[in-house]
Amino acid sequence: MLFGMGNPLLDISAVVDKDFLDKFGLKPNDQILAEDKHKALFDEIVKRTKVEYHAGGSTQNSVKIAQWMIQEPHKVATFFGCIGSDRFGEILKTKAEEAHVDAHYYEQNEEPTGTCAACITGDNRSLVANLAAANCYKKEKHLDLDSNWELVEKAKVYYIAGFFLTVSPESILKVAKHASDKNKLFCLNLSAPFISQFFKEPLMKVMPYVDILFGNETEAATFAKELGFETDDIAEIAKKTQNLPKVNTKRQRVVVFTQGKDDTVATVGFLSALVQEQALEECIRAGHYAANVIIRRVGCTFPDKPDYH
């Protein structure tokens, strides 16, 4: 029912101090791609006293939570992404299986499985993603294979994080066009301010196919600035975004901007209700519930069953 495609990463979480953030030039609350200057960060973070490893990657987390909220049947969600032939890759495979997600990874041995350092200080977390293998996803070597494309065609709802625009915009376009042609739901997440700033061209190529766009208030503001909307009112930005050109006119675009503790709408559990064809309000309620559970835990983890009715 649900298809996701993105960067499968192993999250390495540890509590750090302000000196650690300063040393690597990190903001307390941010998400960035690792540069050369961050190489040592990964060596240092694993030496911290309390290190936790969790299967991660924005899209993979989202489909996993959708599966958790739905519970039965298993394998409601399919996930594509690229990993390395290594121990971290094996961990991701095991974790996907445990979460009952139907993961079909493109495996290669030129780059190791990607990692994401979650540097925690107090209530904040600074994410540094070293994409590595995740950056090696090849449309013609994986998405285009008949056996894989059949899985794409089966789905009714598609969800891809904007993060994947840095890896394979052509793969996103192929899936987005399919959804649009078949009047199925294509959802995209703005993911981080840097996507709108530095990957605006591929983002705007996909936008005409987007039925549901997700983002938080910072991402929305950056997106608005990049598009010259000349407003910082979130509701106004949502309206203008909704009215951007759209290929499939049978569906009006829905824009979902989260604002932390303020009037929130969240993508995570949202997808589970969407797959079950629930009304928008119900999708948002499911999103709130899932976010409420996960925000209290380290990494993207959850109890055995949701307590949600």
Automatic annotation (TrEMBL):
Question: What protein name applies here?
Answer: Adenosine kinase
Under the GO molecular function aspect, what terms does this record hold?
Answer: adenosine kinase activity; ATP binding
Provide the Carbohydrate kinase PfkB domain boundaries: 20-265
According to UniProt, the reaction catalysed is: adenosine + ATP = AMP + ADP + H(+)
Cofactor requirements of the protein: Mg(2+)
GO cellular component term of the entry, any: cytosol
* Location of the protein in the cell: Nucleus
Cite the PANTHER family for this sequence. Answer: ADENOSINE KINASE
Protein family membership: Belongs to the carbohydrate kinase PfkB family.
Its keywords, alphabetically, are: ATP-binding, Kinase, Magnesium, Nucleotide-binding, Nucleus, Purine salvage, Transferase
* Cited InterPro entries: Adenokinase, PfkB_dom, Ribokinase-like
Tell me where on the tree of life, at the top rank, the source sits: Eukaryota
Q: In which pathway does it act?
A: Purine metabolism; AMP biosynthesis via salvage pathway; AMP from adenosine: step 1/1
How is its cofactor bound, per UniProt? Answer: Binds 3 Mg(2+) ions per subunit.
Primary location: nucleus
Task: State the function annotated in the UniProt record.
Answer: ATP dependent phosphorylation of adenosine and other related nucleoside analogs to monophosphate derivatives.
How does it associate, per the subunit comment?
Monomer.
GO BP field: adenosine salvage; AMP salvage; purine nucleobase metabolic process
Which Enzyme Commission number(s) are on file for it? 2.7.1.20
